[in-house]
Amino acid sequence: MKLFTEIGRYLLMLKGMFSKPENMKMYWKELMHQCSEIGFGSLGIVAIISLFIGAVSTIQTAYQLVTPLIPLSTIAQIVRDTVILEFAPTLVCIVLAGVVGSKIASELGNMRVSEQIDALEIMGINTKAYLVMPKIFASLIMIPLLVVISMVLGIIGGRYAGSAAHILSVSTFDKGLMYGFIPYNVFFALAKAYTFSFIISSIPAYFGYYVKGGALEIGQSSTRAVVVSCIMILFSDYVLSALLL
Amino acid sequence: MIELRNIQKSFDGRTVIDGTSAIMKTGQCNLIIGASGSGKTVLMKCMVGLFEPDKGEILYDGKNFTAMNNKEKTEIRKEIGMLFQGSALFDSMTVQRNIMFPLNMFTDWTYQKKLNRVNEVLERVNLKDSNKKFPSELSGGMKKRVGIARAIVLNPKYLFCDEPNSGLDPQTSLVIDQLIKEITLEYNITTVVNTHDMNSVMEIGNYILYMHKGRKEWEGTNKEIIFSKNKLLNDFIFASEFLKDAKEMRMLEETGKMPNDRNIDDIIK
Ligand SMILES: Nc1ncnc2c1ncn2[C@@H]1O[C@H](COP(=O)(O)OP(=O)(O)OP(=O)(O)O)[C@@H](O)[C@H]1O
Ligand SMILES: [Mg+2]
Q: Which of these, A44, A205, B49, B61, has the minimum number of CB atoms within 10 Å of its CB?
């Protein structure tokens, strides 16, 4: 029962976002601000994760492929596909749920608890539109970009880890990389990235926007926001895979 | 003019505002006084629509605010300035940007014009040269004053101040009271102030609403409050011996005779 009220309130929040902006310029500024916070703010962690994930998957794939019957270039193929299909979108978004999600939830939670949201409402500003919408749009713009960057960096990481560990040379890796590439996989990964971006931004925004209490509750609700976002990411990952693959 | 008709509000079955009615006139300072927890903040938030009253109506210049849809409420709200009890400054912005925010949102003035206006209101609240500070760098009293500056920057028709001078020294407190009074008279606006500051009550209380446990216990002017026989009110307002004496002196001044059997010599001594 409580779950249904929460879902209803979540949907109403999303619906409430759509209204005529009081001042387009201010909304645009806020969107740009959020884009840089969410995009550039997470670039570093995404880069590090991607490089290592690529590197590790090369080494582990090589370790599991013991028979000499399979050509070494297959390793590159497997690394490419796992990075594009799963690691870059899902893993990166799970990490971003922690980084971006907790930031959104605690920022809005703090504004709610210290009455800053009320202060905006009193001025006659639709806070759902002004505070929540730019965060969701910025995520929808920036997170898929981060996912694409992560794909590239993941493959680069795997490429150099392979040669550093003397598993396969860079040129063999490149040969495998070109072999049997399915563009649909990238489309699928982007479909996932867009879905996850929405989850990562809207769910923490909901938890932050409706916080009640004080500093303690802000912490609790941002933890809950991250947990729920992660579960929703994995669940929709499953649904999308079942539907689209 | 703001009219309250039989406002009721409860939280989880606990009644916090219990049938309060009042008429708050334009061009005067309307004070809501009462002990801590008596429901002043809740009443004020009901008035501006941050809380939905369970029962009753609020009328702004005859227009029924409670019955309005969101869009109509927004129109009224653009004419409201409010200072929150905790100041509610945007803590990611400097003082200047805090005050400029309503101007950015609702005017198409040039930057210079907006800046001039910001400096003008900052000067009025005695806070020159604090433009570049962040709220975390301000004292509680300074935050209050920035909050007032932000509330008045757009020349509101209705001004709400939730405890504007709690946490201020007596002198600044007087300055703020004077400022509120001045603005009220100058722009002929409807001002509502929550306070438990006795000075404010006496200085600016054109209309005083005394709340006790969510009910209107007494209403009147700062003249009448001296002569009030309401025991709860007298215990609340004239709590200290010092204030009791002050009250009796004031009564003596006004009427030329002592209110009870106390001896004038006792008081002077
Ligand atoms: N959001 C809320 N949910 C539940 N109860 C509340 C809420 N806000 C206020 N109350 C209750 O309403 C009562 C009145 O609170 P209110 O804040 O109006 O007091 P006040 O008169 O402003 O006190 P103070 O002078 O200390 O600011 C309190 O008992 C408080 O517990
Ligand atoms: Mg209060």
A: A44
pLDDT (tens digit, 9 = 90+) per residue, A123-159?
A: 999 999 999 999 999 999 999 999 999 999 999 999 9
- Total domain count, chain B: 2
Rounded to 10 degrees, the C-alpha dihedral A2/A5/A11/A14 comes to -90
Tell whether B42 is within 8 A of chain A (Cβ).
no
Lowest mean pLDDT among A185-194, B45-54, B236-245: B236-245
Same domain, B91 and B129: yes
Contact assessment for residue B161 and residue B184, using Cβ atoms and an 8 Å cutoff: no
Q: Which of B20, B42, B83, B165 to mutate to test the pocket of ligand 1 (most atoms within 8 A of CB)?
A: B42
d(CA B118, CA B137): 19
Ligand 1 pocket, residues with Cβ under 6 angstroms: B 11, 16, 34, 36-42, 85
Among B51, B62, B50, which residue's Cα sits nearest to residue B5?
B62
Question: Which CATH number fits the domain that encloses residue B84?
Answer: 3.40.50.300
Q: Do B84 and A126 touch (CB under 8 A)?
A: no
Interface test with B, best of A17, A115, A130, A212 (most B CBs within 10 A): A115
- B264 and B142 inside one domain: no
Range of the domain at B262: 238-269
pTM of the model: 0.91
> Are B219 and B260 members of one domain?
no
Q: Compare CB distances from A22 to B89, B90, B106 and report the shortest one's residue.
A: B106
Please check whether residues B219 and B262 belong to one and the same domain: no
Q: In A36-132, which ranges are continuous DSSP H helix?
A: 41-64, 73-82, 92-96, 102-113, 116-123, 127
Neighboring chain B residues of A34 at a CB cutoff of 8 Å: none
pLDDT digits (tens, 9 = 90+) for B7-63: 999 999 999 999 999 999 999 999 999 999 999 999 999 999 999 999 999 999 999
Test site for ligand 1: of B16, B40, B52, B216, most ligand atoms within 8 A of the Cβ: B16
CB contact under 8 A, A119 and B106: no
Q: Please determine, for residue A96, whether its predicted confidence score (pLDDT) is greater than 70.
A: yes
* Residue B168 lies inside a defined structural domain of this protein: yes
